[in-house]
Amino acid sequence: MLGRTRERVPVIGMGTWSMGNSTGEKGREELDALRKGIELGMGFIDTAESYGGGRSETLVGRAIREVRDQVFLATKVSPEHFGYDDVLKSCEASIERLDVKYVDLYQLHWPNPRVPIQETMRAMEELVSQGKVRYIGVSNFSAEQTAEAQESLPRSEIVSNQVRYSPSSREIESELLPFCEKEKITVIAYSPLDRGDLPLTRIPKELLKKYEMTAGQIVLNWVTYRERVMAIPKASKVEHVEENAKSVDTRLTQTDYQALSRGFE
């Protein structure tokens, strides 16, 4: 479930950072990858107005054009656009690039202390009241910043916080993750594979054999082990999407999860 809502979202979704800049064969590969992910049930797609100067949103819009009802669509507004009018304009521009009538989840991309959070959240609630946004989320917010954002929403709730999380990037475990679990806020893990830099050789071979998974699949399984965590790995090729889609067919046991956790400390 997403936050405190009854909205069911896939545990493994798709991120689109750096996608949308390519043309020709690589551009077609990215489009095919997104469409294959939707076909395999990975219908949570995350993008942002800043990705490729909006080109990522345009790519996503093309991918979902015939299957909008199968997709939970998330995008983000950049911190330099956190003023009231700028939030409204940014959302309109994103909706136009995505070629949709609304977005399911609209997120604040990074904190911006120069703009009062109350002003930004007033704009977010206005978008909800207009039917252009269904749910409100944040990204890269600390526990304190998330709480302040929630307190600035008189009629809505923060349903998610999108943050970096992987076996080698675990800063959120000390404070933010317990806070989100307590407040029933979904954690959306980006870069769960550390953009390909994760030392996958540290995963025991017997574990790969036991679960009949690749190292990448084991990591995605580990990242999403907790009930409140989902992941949005970027996959710009069909074969990678297919691999990611199978990563939670079987769940790690608690013993194996804890052993992996210790192994990456």
| Approximate strand percentage | 5-15%
Q: Compute the CA-based radius of gyration.
A: 18 Å
How many domains in all?
A: 1
Q: At the first level of CATH, what is the class?
A: Alpha Beta
Number of helices: 10
Walk me through this protein's architecture.
This protein is α/β, with parallel strands linked by helices. It has a single domain (14-198, 219-252), classed as NADP-dependent oxidoreductase domain (TIM Barrel, Alpha-Beta Barrel), CATH 3.20.20. Helix content is 40%, strand content 15%. The protein is built from ten helices and eight strands. The protein has helices at 24-39, 55-64, 84-98, 117-129, 143-151, 176-183, 205-211, 215-223, 238-245, 254-263, and strands spanning 14-15, 44-46, 72-77, 103-108, 133-139, 158-164, 186-190, 229-231. An eight-stranded parallel β-sheet has the order 1-2-3-4-5-6-7-8, covered by helices on one side. Helix 2 links the parallel strand 2 and strand 3 (72-77). Helix 1 packs parallel to helix 9 (238-245) and helix 3 (84-98) packs across helix 4 (117-129). The chain starts with 13 loop residues before the first strand and ends with a helix.
Topology:
Blueprint (H helix, E strand, L loop, with lengths): L13 E2 L8 H16 L4 E3 L8 H10 L7 E6 L6 H15 L4 E6 L8 H13 L3 E7 L3 H9 L6 E7 L11 H8 L2 E5 L14 H7 L3 H9 L5 E3 L6 H8 L8 H10 L2
Parallel strand pairs: 1-2, 2-3, 3-4, 4-5, 5-6, 6-7, 7-8
Helix pairs in contact: 1-2, 1-9, 3-4
